Amino acid sequence: HYHHGTQSTIIQESELQKFYSRLVKLLQGKELGHETIDSLQRLHLILSATKYTRTLPPELQKKVQSLLSSPKEHFQVLSSAVLRETLPLSGQEGNYNQENISQLNSHAAVLLLSQAGSRADLSSLCAQLLRSLESRQSEVPAHSLTHTLPILNTILTLSPECLTDDHVTLLNKKLVDWLRYASITQGGGASSGGFFTGPRSRQPVPTAELDGAVSGDFFTVLCVGQGFTEDQWMNVYSFSMLRHWLLTYHSVLSGNGTADTDDRSEVDGSVVSIVSATSSSGRLLPPKERLREKSFQYCLRLIEQSDRKAHRKTDTDLQKACLVEAVCILDCVCEEDASLVFRAFPCIKALFGRLSSDLSFARVLLPIAQFYLNHGEMAAVDCESVWKLVFGRFPAELFNDHFLAHELLRFLRLNLKSLQHRVPQYTRSFPNLLKFLAWDSPAVVDDFVDLLPSLVTAGTAVELLHTLLDLPCLSATLVLQVRSTCLPISEPGGRGLQSPDAYRNPSFRGLFLFLLRGDAGSGDTIDRLSTLHELLAETADWPRVVQCAQTVPLLLHIFFNTVITGADEKLLSHLILVMLERSSLLLNIPEYNKEIQRVFSSHLLRFCKLHPSLVVDQSHELLEFAGATANVYSKEGIYTHVVWVLGEYLSVSCDSRCSVRLITSCFEALEAVLFEITSSVPPPGADCPAPRVVTTLMSALAKLASRSHDLIPRVSLFLSKLRTLTRGGSVAWCSDEEDLVAIVTRGEELWSLLKAPGVAQSVLTPPPHVTTPQWHRDTNVAMPLRLRALTSLTHSQ
Fold it and tell me: AP-5 complex subunit zeta-1 C-terminal TPR domain location, by residue (predicted)?
């Protein structure tokens, strides 16, 4: 029908008025058929496609508004959509009268909210809704009451300050009545049965529990029947918004500051605490405390009801959902009143003992863990078994449960500070927690961006770095674990895979068990990493493994940024050794290896710039790495940075321990590598060395020679030979002519500098007082002014 509506959007105003008149006649008919629906759809399209909000003719506006109370929902939907696109009639702005409220349904509620243009309008709507709750049931249609709480809940979300103190008190009282005193007989004319059952012989039938037993206590959301009364529906709605209400209305009270003062004056404070602790006569309490008490009782009853054996799976799911909500509400009321903690904990402990062995209740157990975290210390309760479950079995056995992964990681993020200070198991559990990331990296990487810094400590940093580097291996291992338990492991093409056999092989089992460990502390890494990488080589193109590998560089940046803020030099030294070692010990995913080396390079520079003495501390390992010619071809990125670090920071000005002997040994190691790569053909299968590597080696040699003048003749001899060799044209170690010219030019610059050793040292290794202040940029000194004056003079000429 919408193609007709498109034509209507460009009709003249006169034709539009005719369309309005025709629609009014249609709406006056007794039967509203398809033609009416088509016309309403066209009207909605016209209104929504118009630039400015229109005002409908009054008669049409009233007719469309009357459709909100139509028994047919599609007319409710259409009328609500049309009215949201129009301006209210003049004088009816914010006019929330009893008639509007009496027509209340979900679509009318949306309309009322959309027409509230200000906080005053919301307050007016709120007052009218609450007035309808105070009215006698005969004055308000039954169906409208059930929509009142949802719209109030929405207003509470949008603008909680719209509720006055009186509103809060009234709703506290109504919630108490609906939660605790709903009728316990079935609604809808349920019969007790019998052959002669008729209208006069119908007897009230009590509601039942989910296991079929007759309810022996007050009505809750877990009571069942053939029909429900109005107050029973309000009981359900009240429970659904209860936690939100408890969490929000205190902010309203704190804003106004006077709520419940009249009620409090009626009850002595000592009496309140006694009644709250004994839970007997809640009627004596003011509305706020009374609601808290009744909420507490309601949740305890739900926990008792959840132990009953439900006949249907949907009822079992309902029990789990209600348990989650009940425990969260108990946590909320215990936060408000600490005396309730001691009454709640026996029930919570019993519930945990009942559910902890069944992982199908994992999402219920997380709110229980939250309760233990918030109140366990106060109640002096041992929480060890809770954290073993949350940080042990959950990630180890349910890493492929997406819902649990989301909720557990959200739990960790919300409670990060408390977990760091009060739960030592948290930082030790990173091998387990990272299984969520290894299994489904795109879905949870944002969570780990927030969580990873909290897992980095002096005791875990080295092992955590190894674990992050091995995340693709962990991803592959988890896939093998899942496949081995549920499916025969084979590729679609039928080709046999080596990795599943290795996973089952007892001789390799230790490698996989280390990857699947649950806690830190069993060792930073394993000796046979290269063997593990060979066994998992065929998994390098598996989608989960590839996705996991793509997230590792980001996490490594976060890891190093965290480490560098508070780590001592000893830890940084250890991490440099790990970077050098692991640069060649990675699962063979080409792009992954390049990215990891890029990350290592950037942070190696940061470490050494922050602590130049690290170069002397780790000089043996750095020289061993820089002296291996093979690294020039396989690890060009990190190799170049290691050479630059040696040339830059191996100096007495950076560390007094730097001796001439150390400078000479470094010079000889780099000289041998440079001579080898510029006098021979690259190894089979390898590309020519990158020009950046060659120029960095030349610069490093020149820097070292400028600090030990005995070495200058050796550098000068090499540079002159280099110029002579390249005069003949192309060379075997450089295939690009432009690159070769750049290398030779750099060599000539260095050769010219080294002719004047004093100048060379000043240029190649300027002292800190020259580089640090940067006088040419400092606006507080005369140097920039002089430079600008000289520049202007030279330009003018």
Answer: 447-793
